[in-house]
Every structure is written in structure tokens, then in C-alpha cells.
Design brief:
Elements (H helix, E strand, L loop, with lengths): L1 H12 L6 H23 L3 H34 L6 H32 L7 H21 L8
Helix pairs in contact: 1-2, 1-3, 1-4, 2-3, 3-4, 3-5
Length: 153
């Protein structure tokens, strides 16, 4: 959990450096996962890798990208402040982005619990894939529905 939270905060905070550190963190994580996946495929270990990563990976990777998007908001506000001063634009962007970041922490805790108890467990890989699909559907259903007013009110 702590590593994932650290990566999310780094991806977020990197936005202050015009988004360059955010892009670096996202690129580094993508290249690392891709390299490991390629090596696992080459040595006929890919089923084991994806069996481990799938259950928690949907939530974890989504949240890392959410934090990166929040960080890129910071960088964009510095690069293109519009009619505001750069400082004022950064303050506005930070208020918006910090909400996203704080929403990421509980999701990373959930991903960490899945990673700690389900991913390494000796259970059938089909169950792990079901957890991945279920957690992804719940996450995106919640995100698509949250913040909307009740149509009957």
C-alpha cells in the first residue's frame, strides 16, 4: 500500500515541475510493467504474472493514472494559466486536484488489501480475474455515478 501511495503522490506532486516528473513517473511505471510482462512472456511465466497482477492491477493502475492526471492539471495551470496569474491558476488547480488525490488514497488501500490477500493466494486464476473485473466495474460505475444529482430531486 505504501509504495502505491508514494507513487501516486509522486505522480501528483510532479505536476509542479511543469508535469515533467508526472510524465516520467507514469512512463517509468508503464515501461517497468511492460518489460516485466515481456520477460515473463519470453520465459513462459506470463500466466503466473497476470494471475498475480490482474486482481489488484485494475484498481491500482487506474488510481496511479488518476493521480497522474491530477498532477498534470498542476503542470497545465503553470504552463497555461489563462486570465489568472500563474500562482492563482496553480491554487485553483491544486484545490481541484487535491480532491482527486485524496480520493485515490482509499482506493489504493483497497488495491493493497487485494494485493496482499487475493493476488498471492493459491486460488484459481479465474477467481482472480473475476475480482479484477468486479473491482473494475465497481470502480468505474462509482466514478461515473458519483457527483451527479438524483434525477428525481
Amino acid at each position: 500500500m505504501t509504495n502505491n501511495i508514494r507513487v501516486a503522490f509522486l505522480a501528483f506532486a510532479g505536476g509542479v515541475l511543469f508535469g515533467t516528473l508526472t510524465l516520467y513517473v507514469l512512463l517509468q511505471n508503464g515501461l517497468l510493467l511492460g518489460t516485466i510482462a515481456g520477460a515473463a512472456q519470453r520465459f513462459d511465466f506470463a500466466d503466473n504474472l497476470w494471475g498475480f497482477v490482474a486482481a489488484h492491477g485494475v484498481v491500482e493502475l487506474s488510481v496511479i493514472f488518476f493521480a497522474g492526471g491530477a498532477g498534470l492539471q498542476l503542470g497545465w495551470s503553470i504552463l497555461r494559466p489563462g486570465l489568472l496569474t500563474r500562482r492563482a491558476a496553480l491554487v485553483v488547480a491544486t484545490r481541484r486536484a487535491i480532491t482527486i488525490l485524496f480520493g485515490c488514497v482509499p482506493l489504493l488501500v483497497i488495491a493493497g488489501i487485494i494485493e496482499g490477500f487475493i493476488s498471492p493466494a493459491p486460488i484459481p486464476v479465474a477467481i482472480k480475474y473475476a475480482v479484477a473485473i468486479g473491482s473494475g466495474v465497481l470502480l468505474y460505475w462509482y466514478l461515473l455515478r458519483s457527483g451527479r444529482a438524483d434525477p428525481q430531486s
